[in-house]
Amino acid sequence: MPSDEIARNRKTAREMLTDVHTSVASAESDEDKAKLGGVSHDVDIFLDLATLWHSEAIDKAIGAYQTASNIFRDSNDETKDLDVRQIRTSSNLGSLFLLQGNVDSAEREYQYALERLANETGQDAEVLKTDLAYNLARAYEENGDVVKASQWYRDVLRQHPEHMECGSS
In this structure, are 147 and 102 located in the same domain? Predict the structure, then answer.
């Protein structure tokens, strides 16, 4: 497919998904959401939209990630199951908040994701925990809290002495 056609398709998809997001965001009652059908609970739509906006409009990407995060949190209240996409959504939100300079929101997202992973084991969980701990340390450092940042960097280095970024901070 030619690159200009890909760009047009991407633009069309972004516009369509943005319209869906606007409809979901403006739904004020359960009745309004029911009119939208399953779309208001389809986390993948909002993750796709966030991905489409990620490199072009941080505010719009954050809005889509927040909608996805709310869907995850609502569904997790009932199931208590862990969905790795939820962890990645919080991590991505934290990173975007950090890019905006909204350090408090970034910290909150990283902490939430770490809490969700607290009882998880296995290599994938450990990689996620390490990434989140490092990102949390960066957020504390950005916020000027060098004591907390150092604690988190040291924690990452204890578990992964080869982590170069922590050793240089």
Answer: yes
- For residue 162, count other CB atoms closer than 10 A to its CB: 7
3-state SS string over 89-134?
HHHHHHHHHHHHCCHHHHHHHHHHHHHHHCCCCCHHHHHHHHHHHH
Please give the C-alpha separations between residue 32 and each of 15, 24, 35, 46, 112, in angstroms, as whole numbers. Answer: 21, 8, 5, 18, 29
Residues 13 and 93 reside in one and the same domain: no
- Which phi and psi (to 5°) does residue 122 adopt? 105, 165
Last residue of a domain, one of 24, 50, 79: 79
pLDDT in tens, 107-128: 999 999 999 998 888 888 888 9
Amino acid found at 51? T
